[in-house]
Write a structure and sequence with these properties.
By secondary structure, this protein is mainly α. Among the domains are: 59 residues; 60 residues, no CATH class. It is 65% helix and 0% strand.
């Protein structure tokens, strides 16, 4: 609905009308956004209510929460060592039960499970990285400087008046 603007007063009225229209449209779009967001979050809310009554789901969520980047918090060094300790708490008993404790009874397995949990609590990201660097330093070959007997040291070359680069000074090489 365009109206013909003849003077400054008509311009001010039109600006006021358009700013009011803008506010109404922004309000409408904000309401529509909230309704859409509520509809999209409905399946997640349903799953959260179902899983909240199941024991052990929080532990599994906590284990894998450090891997996903969708959380509101940043994954810092403390969280990285935390996920590693959690993964070891789950993985170490499984590995031990399938390898060393294959034919042992449930009492031995339970004792080893408790001992491995306390051992895993001592493991941090810093300790693992320091162990890996020590192992790499041990395996890495020693660097030795090769001395070439054919070439004179740089100090001797600087003391000469003319440095020999292998090309005669009077040659016609371009």
């Amino acid at each position: 609905m365009k109206s013909k603007i003849n003077n400054i007063e008509d311009l001010r009225v039109e600006i006021a009308r358009l700013s009011q229209l803008k506010k109404e449209q922004e309000c409408y779009l904000a309401d529509q956004y909230l309704l859409l967001k509520h509809k999209v979050e409905a399946p997640a809310r349903l799953i959260n209510t179902l899983t909240s009554s199941i024991p052990g789901v929080d532990f599994v969520k906590g284990l894998f929460s450090a891997f996903g980047g969708g959380g509101a918090t940043k994954v810092g060094a403390a969280d990285q060592s935390n996920w590693m300790a959690r993964a070891l708490q789950l993985g170490l008993p499984l590995i031990l039960n399938r390898t060393f404790l294959k034919n042992s009874g449930w009492l031995k397995k339970a004792i080893v499970l408790l001992a491995s949990d306390s051992a895993v609590a001592q493991v941090t990201q810093g300790k693992v990285s320091s162990l890996a660097s020590k192992l790499a330093k041990f395996v890495r070959p020693k660097k030795s400087k090769k001395k070439h007997k054919d070439i004179a040291p740089l100090e001797e070359l600087e003391s000469q008046d003319v440095v020999n680069f292998g090309i005669p000074p009077d040659s016609e090489t371009y």
